[in-house]
Amino acid sequence: MPKAEPIEVQLIQLGGLRKATDLKARDAEIAKAIGSKTNLIAAKGAELARELRVCDLDTVLHKAFDRFMEKPGTTDKGCYAKTAIAQAMYELEINDLDVFLRGIHHVQLEPVWGGSQDTAAELRGICALGLVRANYHDVMNELAELVVDPDPSARLNAVRAIGYSENDLVGTPMLRMKLLSGDKQPEVIVEAFASLMKLAPAKQVSFVARFLDKPDAEMREMALLALGQSRQTAAFDLLQSMYEREIRVDQRRAFVQPIALTRLPAAHQFLLHVIIDEPRDLAIAAIEAFKPFRSDSSLRAKIQKAVNDRDEQTVREAFDRVMSEP
């Protein structure tokens, strides 16, 4: 029997399947890789199946997951294979409840210098998303546990999954509680705000606005961005009124980008007024807030006109810089 190629070589060879023209042979090689006893090879196979949208691998993926759940700390160090398999199932819309339910409860402690590390946190988060997509009847109870998971990546996917659930009745109180109790990881809070506004944007504006009075500057900034990204007229009205209530330029500046993010015509018109009439620093901030929209030729022309109407060299230079940035 010929000696197997080193794992590194096998991974490179598998990567070459992206350019394969014989799709039947390619898919057979991917299925073979998923069936490998080597976790990194199986993970690469699952990654390719997901990326290349290979169909009819439900059974192959399920069996591989079963295999790596046996003595998982030995057969799948780092939880690479199981995580890649769950990700493939999720993105290929394979609603395998058995895999997702086992995965969302799986904890894999592995030794590291000075203690141990749970390598299955990402797997739990992916399986949460999978259960939502599969419309699992008890998914909200599963997410309620995961939202307080010790690992931030699991909590992040938990609040993201709540947003995807479209279950306003249960999801909204869970997200409100998460925001009120806080999280050490800002990314989790950002996602919780986004998910809350996704579930019930119009009803949550006043709740999110409460965080604008918090002493935590980072929390205030995240709440402002959430209001802007909600694209709600009520959010713009609130942001505009708070902008006008402030006197100092540095305090007003905090509202400029969130106002732009609402993408509402009234918001854009308001910022064009800022460019023309407000202090220079605010005018430049408004131009910078328009950066995500610089490919919109109609809006860009309006910004150009506002800059020309102001007729100030520093503001004109800011326009040229922002609109030419990649």
Inertia-based shape: elongated
Model regions low in confidence, pLDDT < 50 over at least 5 residues: none
Taken as a percent bin, the fraction of beta residues is under 5%
Strand ordering within the main sheet: 1-2
Number of helices: 21
Which characteristics define this entry?
single chain; 326 residues; mainly alpha; 2 domains; two-stranded antiparallel sheet; elongated
Topology readout:
Layout (H helix, E strand, L loop, with lengths): L6 H9 L7 H12 L4 H13 L6 H12 L2 H4 L4 H12 L5 H8 L4 E4 L2 E4 L2 H13 L5 H8 L5 H14 L2 H14 L4 H14 L1 H9 L7 H13 L3 H13 L3 H5 L2 H6 L3 H13 L2 H10 L7 H14 L2 H12 L2
Antiparallel strand pairs: 1-2
Helix pairs in contact: 1-3, 2-3, 3-6, 4-6, 6-8, 7-8, 8-9, 8-10, 9-10, 10-11, 10-12, 11-12, 12-13, 12-14, 18-19, 18-20, 19-21, 20-21
Outline the structure in words.
A hairpin with a 2-residue loop joins strand 1 (109-112) and strand 2. The chain is 70% helix and 2% strand. Strands 1-2 form a two-stranded antiparallel ribbon. The chain has 326 residues and is mainly alpha-helical. The model has no long low-confidence stretch (mean pLDDT 94). The protein contains 21 helices and two strands. The protein folds into two domains: 1-151; 205-326. Helix 1 runs parallel beside helix 3 and helix 6 (80-91) packs parallel to helix 8 (121-133).
Write a brief caption for the model.
This protein has helices spanning 7-15, 23-34, 39-51, 58-69, 72-75, 80-91, 97-104, 121-133, 139-146, 152-165, 168-181, 186-199, 201-209, 217-229, 233-245, 249-253, 256-261, 265-277, 280-289, 297-310, 313-324, and strands spanning 109-112, 115-118. It has 326 residues and is mostly helical.
